[in-house]
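Q: What does the assembly look like in three dimensions?
Context provided by user:
Components: two
Sequences:
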Amino acid sequence: MTTEVITPEEIIKKGKIVFEKTKLMTDCTLSYCPGCGHGVAHRLVMEVVDEMGIGDNTIGVAPVGCSVLAYEFMNIDIQQAAHGRAPAVATGIKRVFPEKYVFTYQGDGDLAAIGTSETIHACNRGENIVIIFINNGIYGMTGGQMAPTTLPGMKSSTSPYGRVVESMGYPLKITEMVATLPGVAYATRQAVHTAKLVTKTKKAIIKAFQNQKDKKGTSIIEIVANCNSGWKMTPVESNKWLDENMLAYFPLGDIKK
Amino acid sequence: MEEVKLMKGNEAMAEAAIRAGVDAYFGYPITPQSEVIEYLMHEEPFKRTGMVVLQAESELAAINMVYGAAACGKKAMTSSSSPGISLKLEGISYMAGAELPCLIANVMRGGPGLGTIQPGQSDYFQAVKGGGHGDYNLIVLAPSTVQEMADFVDLGFDLAFKYRNPVMILSDGAIGQMMEKVILPEQKERLSNEEIIKHYGNWATTGKPESRESNIITSLDLKPELQEIHNQHLQNKFKTAEKNEVRYEQIQCEDADYILVAYGTSARISQKVVQLGREKGLKIGLLRPITLWPFPKKIISELADHAKGFLSVEMSAGQMVEDVLLAVEGKVPVAHFGRMGGMIASPSEVLDAVEKEINKI
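A: Here is the predicted structure of the complete assembly.
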């Protein structure tokens, strides 16, 4: 019996390419924990920028947090902002380069705690930018501390017996808050832990960038994501927990369209 | 075309910013410098030159807007007064770390805390010793006239882009609020986006074409061995600036056997003190640092070879006096005279202090 050995090059030559790595993602190995949703979110943003043909005309703003190194993975011009200040930095960029596409990529601590003021005021001015907001209910980078979006009773390293709302406050629904502002054109909550949701999230990102093209104002896309390491679960457990708990408090869907 | 006008220091700086071809000003109101943003909003430079003027929601936001615009290779500036500058320091440290050129004006008031809205010079340490976290320096220009408030905008941006580092105009409430004759410079063209790509395309985020690697603006390196190399690079820049950018003015120092050192409003008062002292037969002179960083150490050291003593005159408890002491290297006595909390010294009280110090020698 003889076996035909086919090299990868020959497979590519023979077959039709139906799926490949996004051109605007670099070859750097992602620094995210296996199972984390950041990688999918990164890819979706870059895929949309690539498909819209605006990679050479787009400037990103990376936050402080797990995605601080986003600039190593996204193959476009990027500025790294101080903790929480990404919407102000994006404002500075957009005001001097109104013809360019500008987006921020921020976590919940960055956007909804230390950067609450910058977030609200950028939205209130209707800055013509896209805000990608990853909400995983925890500070991942610093080791699993309580975030503004940590659920009631949820354990973290700074709420080791669970979040006590009477003394620690309630999880902040900042996307609903900014959706009330006239400057916000589009506010939506999405997720990326199933294939179906990934497709929906991509559509939301396309709409957000299209809004920027049409000069409609601020578009904010909250992506409810897992943090298996911070939540101290396996990736599969964390996705299940996300479905049952995070989405109960942070329901998916358009808040303003 | 050059133009002669009677203007407040704050207004002169604002008008000079438009004429220097500044791309964006981001500010937040605070006394005694609110005229800067008021003038700009009234003047509507977006109609004159396309310059952006935006009132931010806080000093924090304003400096980070400057960060974003500066990282695009644009000329971006902000201004504030003491408490507001404290808030901006986070952003200033990030900009020094990320090597971003920008101009920040501090029209100082008395501190600490909310302090007073009257003039002060007690942010000297904050301005010249770093202020924010980490090893960095700002190039610090100290105007003592309304003319210099205007002139230092263009100079400040030249230095900021030369060293890719933030530059600070360290003024005070008196210079900001007083009206004087000022010769305004000719209008400079703002750079086009094509010119920005040509000049700064090797670092600025202007949108990545396929022909080059992505431009990344960051002050972060998680690898300590690389972060140290970056720090060494910054230090080398600061050494070059120390060598090349020292600026000062000497007033009757040639034959002086006692030297006053003062900047800003205190330098104006000290100039009068020199005149009054000379009338009384005292051979005194004034060394006015124009750059507070880099500090004019060499000239002070040279003057210390002949003078019998120095008096640092400041509207503070004694901050610049430490740099005078370091420059004098113990050759002769160095004293300090200061008023605080928004009080401005009168020439006669400074002259009394001078005579007292001379008598001690």
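Follow-up: The domain at 33-256 of chain A is CATH 3.40.50.970 (Rossmann fold).
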